[in-house]
């Protein structure tokens, strides 16, 4: 059955691929609209690289979210082909009205709206495949261009870049599954992807070791993630100088560190996915995703896109500066969560902040707060940040709660609509935008919906 579902998805993607090929041959500029996170930037990069390799032309726009007014404005633009990547499924009704051809390469939850003949909808959910863990937005984009061009291998060398998007959406927490396994296989065969076991701490060649530990978010290190002082003390207690880089440790020190970190979280040692011929700062696909995420969070999406298109040197230096800024923000956010905790309701918990620095990372710190033990893992967490008259909501939960029936995508979609907002996403992670004046009513409704989901699974 699983094979049949994947086959159906690949067939749909191949129809989309034929459409891309047709417009490249007709010398049309292809309009790409994608999301501003690591997955969306990777998705746009996959599409743009494939089109560029076929001597095609493209015009990219990156958005923090696709609002109905964005879709209506795009519909007025005079392009022959639009591709929405890592977004679009929730706006299918409006996109159906486009006069041009459209491809939606998404992985977020779908509704019951069908697509018109000129709209090709590539989304794993349509075929009964879980888009929250089995395929990312960049993965859907990859399937859409995978067979483009002449030759047996076509664009399969772009599989590692698609997996960067999967890392960005944390789809490798328990190893890659589903269609992502196909991308791994093709990455190994055609994209120089290598897999080896190692410690999954970040910035091994760049940062002092205590910072590498504190900046490691996934998997989180309870007591160390987000806490520079605790990380320093942890190393000093082991007799390891906190300022040394991981790569400069003796082998026996590396082994001792591995043993101690595994006690904190066994998942810290496992498969690392890398492209050895890549720049050393982008070699590890998960590190690559963090760099793209930093570009997105700091509103430098053009820089992120340029890196996916092959810019190195100054572009990577600029991105690393953004990453440092982003990590400082995360550290501040984790300190805030440790100090303030969350507000508890019967079936959910929430955090609320109006700090302009923390607003852009509320979703990240809520997820890391849960995985590092600072927040209650037995309840979904809603991270709320005020944006003028609205509140931006980022919801996170655990796979364990999803298995018990929690579906944050549905809860946030339905609850936000009740108050004139919009929302949706995945069962495990979702977002919404609601009027500030309705925040309390919204929270109560989400709490009731999660209760209903848990009691009716």
UniProtKB/TrEMBL annotation:
Residues 377-450 form the DHHA1 domain. Transmembrane segments: none annotated. Residues 204-263 form the DHH-CID domain. SUPFAM superfamilies: DHH phosphoesterases (SSF64182). Residues 30-165 form the DDH domain. GO terms for molecular function: exonuclease activity; nucleic acid binding. Pfam families: DHH (PF01368), DHH_CID (PF21763), DHHA1 (PF02272). This is Uncharacterized protein.
């Amino acid at each position: 059955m699983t094979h049949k579902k994947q086959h159906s998805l690949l067939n749909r993607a191949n129809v989309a691929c034929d459409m891309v090929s047709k417009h490249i041959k007709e010398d049309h500029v292809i309009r790409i609209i994608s999301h501003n996170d690591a997955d969306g930037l990777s998705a746009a990069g996959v599409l743009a690289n494939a089109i560029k390799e076929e001597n095609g032309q493209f015009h990219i726009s990156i958005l923090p979210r696709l609002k109905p007014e964005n879709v209506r404005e795009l519909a007025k633009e005079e392009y022959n082909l639009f591709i929405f990547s890592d977004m679009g499924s929730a706006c299918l009704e409006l996109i159906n009205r486009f006069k041009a051809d459209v491809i939606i390469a998404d992985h977020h939850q779908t509704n019951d709206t069908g697509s018109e003949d000129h709209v090709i909808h590539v989304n794993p959910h349509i075929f009964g495949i879980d888009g929250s863990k089995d395929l990312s937005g960049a993965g859907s984009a990859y399937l859409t261009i995978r067979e483009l061009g002449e030759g047996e291998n076509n664009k399969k060398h772009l599989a590692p870049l698609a997996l960067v998007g999967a890392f960005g959406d944390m789809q490798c927490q328990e190893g890659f599954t589903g269609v992502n396994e196909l991308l791994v296989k093709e990455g190994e065969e055609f994209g120089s992807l290598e897999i080896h076991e190692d410690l999954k701490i970040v910035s091994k060649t760049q940062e002092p070791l205590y910072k590498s530990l504190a900046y490691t978010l996934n998997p989180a290190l309870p007591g160390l993630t987000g806490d520079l002082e605790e990380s320093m003390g942890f190393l000093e207690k082991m007799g390891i100088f906190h300022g040394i880089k991981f790569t400069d440790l003796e082998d026996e020190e590396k082994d001792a560190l591995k043993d101690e970190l595994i006690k904190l979280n066994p998942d810290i040692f496992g498969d690392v996915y890398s492209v050895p011929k890549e720049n050393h700062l982008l070699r590890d696909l998960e590190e690559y995703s963090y760099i793209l995420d930093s570009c997105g969070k700091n509103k430098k999406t053009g820089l992120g896109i340029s890196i996916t298109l092959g810019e190195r040197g100054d572009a990577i230096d600029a991105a690393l500066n953004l990453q440092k800024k982003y990590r400082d923000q995360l550290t501040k956010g984790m300190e805030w969560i440790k100090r303030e905790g969350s507000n508890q309701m019967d079936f959910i918990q929430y955090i609320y902040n109006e700090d302009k620095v923390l607003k852009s990372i509320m979703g990240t710190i809520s997820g890391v707060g849960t995985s590092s033990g600072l927040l209650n893992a037995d309840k979904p967490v809603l991270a709320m940040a005020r944006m003028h008259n609205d509140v931006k909501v980022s919801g996170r939960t655990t796979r364990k709660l999803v298995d018990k029936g929690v579906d944050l995508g549905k809860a946030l979609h339905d609850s936000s609509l009740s108050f004139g907002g919009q929302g949706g996403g995945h069962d495990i992670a979702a977002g919404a935008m609601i009027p500030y004046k309705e925040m309390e009513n919204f929270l109560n409704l989400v709490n009731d919906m999660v209760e209903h989901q848990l009691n009716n699974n």
